[in-house]
Here is the input.
Amino acid sequence: MTSAIEVEGLVKRFGDHRALDGVDFTVPAGRILGLLGPNGAGKTTAVRVLSTLLRPDAGRARIFGYDVVKEPHEVRRCIALTGQFASVDQEISGRENLYLIARLLGMPARRARARADGMLERFRLGDVGGKLAREYSGGMRRRLDLAASLIGDPRLIYLDEPTTGLDPHSRNELWAMVKERALAGSTVLLTTQYMEEAEALADSVVVVDRGRVIAAGTAAELRARVGGRTLQIRPVHLQDAAAIVESLALEGLYARIDQEACVVRLPLVEPDELTRAVRAITASAVDVLAVDTQVASLDEAFIELTRSTE
Ligand SMILES: Nc1ncnc2c1ncn2[C@@H]1O[C@H](COP(=O)(O)OP(=O)(O)OP(=O)(O)O)[C@@H](O)[C@H]1O
Ligand SMILES: [Mg+2]
Here is the structure.
């Protein structure tokens, strides 16, 4: 069976800078891939190459077997793109935006109208459908943008940081919709900086950093790669956290302070690290309120992975 996306040795340069520096990955049809990475990792660049908006400098990419450079028209017929930044027409209403796109996709007028109304309802924009898009709030515009890209039932959907700026309710709705699309057979490539999002949606995750793939697998596999468990140490006074970190460092253990949660976190990798950590905590002579182990979040896995390539 043909893969939805096949990327081999993809390189994209901007001047001397390699935004993509030899990227490989494959997405089987009907699956959701999470493309994960920090700011500037190359996620948007990859999406733009895969949607024929940017020409790669080396390597190749095929969408349902079509080459993005040699067969851009065929590729465009298969895809829908929701960019990181809104792309709807600001000077017409939300309903008119959706209607126009449906017409451009070749739907007859009646069907296009029904489809536009259906999408407005679906994205909770029914009440504001008649308003100019420029009068929408950021979240409404985002939802309109998503509705616009999904209107034609695309085989392959690119979502570039789709939930940035959405409230939790809209985010959950979007997640449900993405899953529904995948169940109906669409393939989805989703870029995100939120591990939680990748974990909630993606069948597999590719982590990119500075233009290179640094890890790939399921969310569970990525977590396992960084040990899977985290030791969480809560000092009585947060200002003592640094002393704990230093003491752990003397034992060769690299922890970080989570200011928000008021804890020190240490990913546990080797079997003897827990004993060494307890020794280090005792040696620090800091008063500790709680010490417990947690299954590492994908966030921690991600931080570990991007740090280990520095
Ligand atoms: N048109 C361009 N001209 C020059 N440099 C660019 C251009 N587009 C992207 N870059 C550079 O390429 C690198 C990757 O950018 P890209 O937008 O793909 O990152 P990203 O992973 O999408 O980041 P973010 O999470 O911030 O959206 C960055 O260093 C960026 O500055
Ligand atoms: Mg981006």
